[in-house]
Amino acid sequence: MFSEKDIKKKYGRVDLTAEATHEVIKKIISIPRITKLNIKFNRPNDDDFGAVEERVLGRFKKQNIMNFNQISTTRDEEGIKPDDETKALMNIAKSNGMVRAEGYDQGKKIIHSTQEHPIIRTTKYNPDLELKMDAMIVSSLKMLKKL
User: Fold this and answer.
1) Is-contact 85 51, C-beta < 8 A?
2) 84: closest CA among 114, 54, 108?
3) How many C-beta atoms surround the C-beta of residue 43 within 10 A?
4) 22-50 tens-digit pLDDT
5) Residue 40 is inside which H or E element, if any?
6) For residues 37 and 52, what is the distance between their CA atoms, to the nearest angstrom?
């Protein structure tokens, strides 16, 4: 739908990211020893974010930064300990890019990524009463209200 010529002509390039579940960021942060953390996203449109996210995005806007990619690594036994700003970046990336973490729990390697945890919703429709596209739009609007 977003690759249609009329859409591209009117809005330019449209980047889409599958919305990840809220739980995946908690899973990432709960890795006992994070050794690698990749946070990557395209700067989103102005939206309803928390104060830290708004401050970070405001900085990016002032600097004309459109794409952000941060790879952090450590060999320290304590692992990476995300602070509030890093968590804000992760929350932005959850909806507008991706977060991927590698780490260890009792010697076992763990990898969590927002790309592996998209929000999936199914809907039913009656093809005799409505078009598939109409059903998708109604379902999408309901899901957006929940997000």
Assistant:
1) no
2) 54
3) 18
4) 788 999 999 999 999 999 998 876 666 77
5) strand 33-42
6) 19
pLDDT digits (tens, 9 = 90+) for 106-123: 999 999 999 776 666 677
- Find out whether 89 and 56 touch, Cβ atoms under 8 Å: yes
- CA-nearest of 68, 83, 67, 82 to 36 is 82
Instruction: Please list, in sequence order, all residues whose beta carbon lies within 8 angstroms of the beta carbon of residue 73, skipping any fewer than 6 positions away.
Output: 35, 36, 37, 80
Question: What is the residue type of 6?
Answer: D
Query: What is the sign, positive or negative, of the torsion defined by CA atoms of 52, 53, 55, 59?
Result: positive
> How do the domains of the chain map onto residue ranges?
17-116, 119-147
Q: Which two tokens stand for residue 92?
A: 């932005």
CB 53 within 8 A of CB 92: yes
